[in-house]
Structure formats: structure tokens, C-alpha cells
Amino acid sequence: MGTPHHHGRIAGGLAMTGLLGRVLGPDYARPLRRHLAAMIVYSVLQAVVFTLLVPVLRALLSGDTMTAWRWLGVLSVAVAATTVAYYLQAQLGYRVGMALSRAVHHRTGDHLAALPVGWFTGEKVGRVARLASQGVVDIMGVPAHLLQPVVSAVVTPATVVAVLAVFDWRLAAATLLTVPVLVLVYRWTGNLVAASDHAVDAAGAEAAARVVEYAQTQAVLRAHGRARDGFAQLDAALAEQARAGRAQLVRAVPGLAAFVLTVQIAVTAVLVVGVALAIGGDVDAAELIALLVLVIRFAEPLVTAADLGGALRIARNSLARVDELLRTPTLPEPAGPAAGHRGDGSVELAGVSFGYTADRPVLTDVSLRVPPRSMTALVGASGSGKTTITRLVARFFDVDAGIVRVGGTDVREQTTEQLMAQLSLVFQDVYLFDATIADNIRTGRPDATDDDVERAGRLARVDEIVERLPDGYRTRVGEGGARLSGGERQRIAIARAIVKDAPIVLLDEATAALDPANEAAVQEALTALTANRTLLVIAHRLQTVRNADQILVLDSGSVAEQGGHDELLAADGRYAAFWRERERAGGWRLAPTTPAAVNP
């Protein structure tokens, strides 16, 4: 019967057909229906083959050789038809499996591109990665290998019962009476295993995450002499995984034993009824032997489906996760580009309120306007809403109230392509693809020529980086740009924005963590990027704040002050306090300790 991980529900397997249809989509509905029809035909023919054993055995045991040969001929035709049906359903299953692989990748990819960027938390990105790899492998096995035994487990026994009713209604009734008991015990066993499925899956995911963490933190562990004596978090996760597996085994074994025993009791009960009928003279011995072959065939598909239960449950869980992903609401997208769109390079927020969760607002009634080819600096404490404003302008989320306009048009009325064509985004957390420097710059505009890439590289001071590299612009940067420093990654990100040449720049100007040489290079690159463009900047440097056309001081999600540098200093409010604090911080220096200052 298999281990607890190899047990599941027939009903759950059949429910997968609905999930398959939703995941595949309407384009693959017809091939899926053909596959299901082929599996049903094959399952019926299987039962027919065993049914034909009844007249064959009856004729042989009664000594009627000629009749036996005639029925053997019919049986041979049925066997040939069953073989053809098996081949056809297997081929259709393979094709549907390949179609399912394509559908999962294409449909999830298209859906992910339409989800709010804020949806992509670390946990959800990890789930998507698992779905795109192991999940797809699990799902592909459903039509190719797993669905047919499930269909046979229902169709073949049902056909057997119908045939038994033709030969002897009493044996058919006895067999049919065992079905509710088998189903109840089967469901109970599946519930025992399913009850601990979540704990086992969670423990496995935690253990896998800790293994990755252990590999990624070797430098820290070795620095503290912990590489050889173990990693407490990993040890605890592995111990919990083993504990969860043992708990599932302990809970599932009684159910597994009960199901095996129930199947044997069911077959024995029907056998007793058949023997009683034979003793009473209602059924001859030859016919009884032939009919009991059908009874055995009744139980066989149930056992086969039970052995595949674990794989079925894993595949169904993967299908359910894909289905859940595809049902995640996307940002509404207009049918076409907004008509009458000015595209003048302006940015405006009117009465905007927004919160990442319903009970914690981040912005409350924020209004601002950034005129074309001007610079607006956002200033405020961490958590005041500066980054959220830039995310709403880029429509990473939709506002809870109010309107965000880019180029004079509500961002919700613009297609993603129309909106993003107007924006260049350079944020503090720079991500580079594991590709060449040129490829990463060309991400800003895929049709950019080599001359365009090199010009953007010069303006962003990337040329200083490539001169030191043997492969120049063809140098691969590693995953996330791991082979480059933070300042070098920022320069490439700025070059990417330059080559895009969008009229509006959203900029998180974070250079505090850079060394002086990189900071100077990045500032020169930013100057090239922002020339003659509309700039909305989360400002960190005093010089940037001073040069802004207007400054917005955010406090607890609202605009506390707004105006020019001199105007806000004269008001002696929050901005003036911020300015004095930054000036004091800018004057800090590390001075060498004199010998006299050292304690004896």
C-alpha cells in the first residue's frame, strides 16, 4: 500500500481535472476533454476484457470447447482494442502534460507581469520559484502518469459492478454494499495523512531555507569559528522535519492498515456470498470462479490509486498553488493607451491616501505637483512615506483614495507600456541581471545600439569600470551584480536609465554608504541623467535639497511643509530642524587619539 506519503483520496484526484482545466485555460480545454474521454474508454475496455473471462471460463469448465474458442476470439479483439486505447490515452496524456508545462510557465509569467510590484515579497517570490521548477515537474506527471489510475479506480469498478448485475444481481449487490465502507475508510485514512501534511511541508520548507542560509553565511560562521560545530537553526529545522515525519507516520499507519484490511474483508465477504450461492445450487462452480475474477478486478484499481495517493496529493497541491496564483487579482489594465494623453512630463498627486494594509495608512490626503523639467525633493524621517510616493507614481500599487497623474493623465487610465515609457527609475536597491554589463544597460531600451550603450556608459561613468575589466562591456556581473561594488552597480543602473531616455526620473539618491570616489562618480552620473528632465527625488544630500525647485517635508504620511529652501529655512519648522541636523552630521570627523588621551 505504500508509505504515508503514498496515500491520498480518489475524490481529490478527480477534483484535479477541474484544477487542470483552470490552469490550462480555454485554449487547452479540447485536448483535455479528449484525454479524459480516452482514459474513460480505456478503463471501460479494461473491465470488458475481464468480463469476457466469464463466458470463456464457463465454457471451458463445462467442456464446451467450440464456445470457448469463439469467446476467446472476442476476448482477443477486446484485448487489441484495449491496447490501442491505452496507447492513445498515453499519447494524449503526454501531449497534455507538455501543454500543461507551457501553460504554467506562460500563464504565470503573463500574470506575474500584471500583479502589483508590492505583491512580490520574499516569501511569495520563493513560492513562485518553487512552482516554476519542482512544481511544474510535479504537475506534468498528472496527465501523463497519475490521472489515468484515478479514472480507472472509478470507471473500472463501476463497470465491473454493472457486468456482475447482468450475470448475478446478488453478487453485484454484495459487491456494491462494500463500496460505502471502502470509501469511508479510504477518506478516513486520507484525512489522517492530510492532517499532518501542512506540518510536514512547513518543516521541509524551513529545513530547505536553513540549508541555503547555512551555505550563504559560511563567511560569518567561519569568522566566528562556527563552521564545523554546527548551526543551531539548521539543526533545529532538521530535527523538526524528522519529528513531523515521524508524527505523520504514527498517525497514518492505523489508517493504512485499516484500508488494507477493509479491502481484504470486502473481497472475502463477496467470496462468502458467492460460495453460499454455489452451495445452494443457484450458481454453478464454473460461473462462480469466473465471477470472482471480476470481484478481484473490482478491488485492484482501488489499491493502485492508493499507492499513488502521495504523488497525487503533491501534484494537486502544486496545481492548487498555481491556480491560487492565477486567481490573484491584478492591477486593472485599460484596453488601450489613454486618449488625449499630453505626456508633458508632469507628475501630480491629488488627495492621495494609501496603506499597504487596511489598518495602517502610510499616506493621508497627500497632494503635490511636479512641473515638467523641474526637481522636487522629498524629505522626511524613515517611514514618512517618501518611497511610497515614488511607488505610487510608478503604479506599483493603486491608491486607496485620490488620483496619481503622470503626463497629465491618471496612471490607471494608461497601459503599463504607456506609463513606463515616461519613467526612469533609479532606486537605492539596485538589482543587476546575471548578464553582461552591456546587457544590463540595454535593459533600459532593448533596441539600443552599441554606440547608445557606450554613450550612456560614459555619461554614467561606467567606462571607468569597464576599462579595468578584461572583457569590457561583455563582462558578466554575476547574480544581482555580485561581482561589482555597490557604487559600480549604481552607475550601471543610472546608465540603464540614461539609455532609456524617459522624460521623468524617480530617484532614491542614496550615496551615504559609498566611498568618496564612487560618490563623486555617481553624482556626476546623476547630473547627466537628470539634465532637462522632470525629477522626483528622495533626497539625502544637502546639496541636492538646496538645488531643488521645491521641497516637500513629509511627516507621518502627510505633507508637513512645502516650499523652496530659503523659504522653509525662514519658516524655522521641521525642514529647518532637518537642515541643522544634517549640517551638524556633515561636520563630524574621526580624529586620531593623542597619547595624552589614552588611559594608562
Describe the overall structure:
With 600 residues, the protein is of the alpha/beta class. The protein has two domains: 4-327, Up-down Bundle (ABC transporter transmembrane region fold); 347-586, P-loop containing nucleotide triphosphate hydrolases (Rossmann fold). The chain is built from 20 helices and ten strands. The strands form two sheets. It has a six-stranded mixed beta sheet with strand order 6-7-8-3-9-10, sandwiched between helices. Strands 2-1-4-5 form a four-stranded antiparallel beta sheet. Helix 4 (122-167) packs across helix 10 (309-327) and helix 14 (450-459) crosses helix 16 (486-500). It is elongated.
In terms of topology, how is this protein built?
Blueprint: H1 10-24, H2 29-61, H3 65-114, H4 122-167, H5 169-195, H6 197-216, H7 218-223, H8 232-279, H9 285-307, H10 309-327, E1 347-357, E2 360-370, E3 375-380, H11 386-393, E4 401-406, E5 409-410, H12 416-420, E6 423-426, H13 437-442, H14 450-459, H15 463-466, H16 486-500, E7 504-508, H17 516-530, E8 534-538, H18 542-547, E9 550-555, E10 558-563, H19 565-571, H20 574-586
Parallel strand pairs: 3-8, 3-9, 6-7, 7-8
Antiparallel strand pairs: 1-2, 1-4, 4-5, 9-10
Helix pairs in contact: 1-4, 1-10, 2-3, 2-4, 2-9, 3-4, 4-5, 4-9, 4-10, 5-8, 6-8, 8-9, 14-16, 16-17, 19-20
